[in-house]
Amino acid sequence: MSKRADLLTLVRAVPIGRVTTFDVLAQKIGEPLALVQSLIAHLSEDEREFVPWHRVVAKGGAIGRGPHRDQQFARLVREGVQVLPAGIVHDMPRFLVTFDGAPQDTRKPVEPAPQPAAPLSRSRGMKSHR
Prior knowledge:
The chain is 36% helix and 3% strand. It has helices spanning 3-12, 22-29, 33-41, 45-50, 69-78, 92-95; strands spanning 20-21, 56-57. It has a two-stranded parallel ribbon. By secondary structure, it is mostly helical. It has 6 helices and 2 strands.
């Protein structure tokens, strides 16, 4: 397989609601960062339909600045990725996929806040309603 095909396969493996970086992709396929950035930037319109290019961001979480910026921003937000108005993925470690073995999902299920226990004593004249 070509490096380009390897790259597109990796990008397709990024799950909905997650992102990866150009740096991670470059490292995984063993190519320079600039080449990976160029390959993603020059996807054809047909490729943009089946490759989730919008899930690839800069190392610090910044989304692209090119002609597809608004589309990338909207798609990421629609998928549940928290993107700040400045165009930076908030809480990057939470959303980052590095392809290093086990899934990188560090999101913890939201647990309900503990409820205070009902008082054990009663006021004079009050009945317990337990």
